[in-house]
Amino acid sequence: MNADPNLPHLTPDLPAPETFTDAEAAVARLEQLYADATAFLREKFGETLASGRPGKRFRAFYPEIRFSTTSFAQVDSRLSFGHVAMPGTYSTTVTRPDLFRAYLTQQISLLIQNHNVGVQIGPSTTPIPIHFASQSDATLSVPQEGAMEFPLRDVFDVPDLSTTNDDIVNGFGFTNADGSGPLAPFTAQRVDYSLARLAHYTATAPEHFQNHVLFTNYQFYVEEFEAYGRKALANEDSGYTAFVGPGNVEITTPDGDLPQPVKMPQMPTYHLKRKGGQGITLVNIGVGPSNAKTATDHIAVLRPHAWLMVGHCAGLRNSQSLGDFVLAHAYLREDHVLDDDLPVWVPIPALAEIQIALERAVAEVTMFEGYDLKRIMRTGTVATIDNRNWELRDQSGPVQRLSQSRAIALDMESATIAANGFRFRVPYGTLLCVSDKPLHGELKLPGMASDFYKTQVTRHLLIGIRAMERLREMPLERIHSRKLRSFEETAFL
């Protein structure tokens, strides 16, 4: 049912747009506009729940950043972000500026600095859905459609798929409805949608996510991550300040109690926090490319600096042993979940900065150097498929393709995570551990798994952490290189 167009609309007072040449002041204005808009919606929603259907509609708008330049002057071309390529007007809607304060301040500052032009901050024309406005208030719960005596959308705006999509990151030639170009990779509604999904799937608030994300497909890594986190909290020089688990349970001491929720989320997530979001988040995505895509679809809006897959794989070469490491430098994509967003003919390149960080971390933890690293690690193609029991089918076709691709390992998540990193411009990498060799009769059986897990999980996870710590020390402009940028890019990272 469509809302009655004749109903009067009530909106909060909308201040006129203002131009800022100071990034911090610009972000402060964004925060004020967003806080005023969402407070208005929550107040009116509470009144509606208490008093019933009102005789008007309530609407408030996301704040907006707008930027215009008329100059063709070139900026420092070594930088992959922080500037626009052509004269014109660019804009983006913004949500949760409090959550993205550091990111927005940095991106706006670069834009002003590189073009010597201010940014305009004001209300947009995109309504804030009541579902998203109420997310920050635990006392408010938006009923499902049909639970109220009148359709919710008659009175409030609800999520709109026309502004909740990946058209900017997937496409070419995208323009906003008003003709302006995109300033950021995601619209405010797309970000809000993912923030809500993250809380649902991980049972942790978006505020806890760190800039460096590890993905795994086994619970054993979670247990080791918690043990590492507790040791880090015991070391005053580590720089880590807290450890957070599902249910937003947070400890700041090594002996703090970290109870598990009665019902675990689909993707249990843990955060080893550090000042400025420079810690590490571990997400247990479970098994399969669908989960891998779901997790990365939503974490991408947080604009992490890197994500890595550290999980188990099937070794495809007779020369490999259980427990060996695999450093992916190419991907054979047979996961299918991204085919509509990123065709399989698109190459997913290895990123030198990530590869070097992972290789050096392996050397540091295992104490093998140079040529000796080949004793325990292979570098090559990782194949990702969507059929866990592929071995039970006729193997002639799959094995031929694996051989032609020079694949050395097989899993169900790595290529998905790498491809979505490529799609969303998030630096990515993969370091796997061989847990079975199906082509050579070494299957993953309970007894073998137990010995394997005891000896290998600890150092495999430690390698992932060490790699992230190396990447953390890298300048942002180096890790977010031009390799992930297309012909036509948004100014914001």
Structural features, described:
With 493 residues, the chain is α/β, with parallel strands linked by helices. It has two domains: 9-198, 2-Layer Sandwich (amp nucleosidase, domain 1); 203-482, Rossmann fold (3-Layer(aba) Sandwich). 32% of the residues lie in helices and 20% in strands. The strands form three sheets. It has a five-stranded mixed β-sheet. The chain has a five-stranded mixed beta barrel with strand order 14-17-16-15-18, surrounded by four helices. Strand 11 (269-274) and strand 12 (280-284) form a beta hairpin. Helix 5 crosses helix 7 (289-299), helix 7 (289-299) runs parallel beside helix 10 and helix 8 (352-366) packs across helix 11. The model has no long low-confidence stretch (mean pLDDT 89).
Brief synopsis:
Helix content is 32%, strand content 20%. The chain has 493 residues and is of the alpha/beta class. It folds into two domains: 9-198, amp nucleosidase, domain 1, CATH 3.30.1730; 203-482, 3-Layer(aba) Sandwich (Rossmann fold).
Q: Average pLDDT value?
A: 89
Unreliable segments of 5+ consecutive residues? none
Distance between the termini: 39 Å
Largest sheet geometry? 5 strands, mixed
**What is the name of the CATH class of the largest domain?**
Alpha Beta
What characteristic shape results from the CA principal axes?
globular
Number of domains: 2
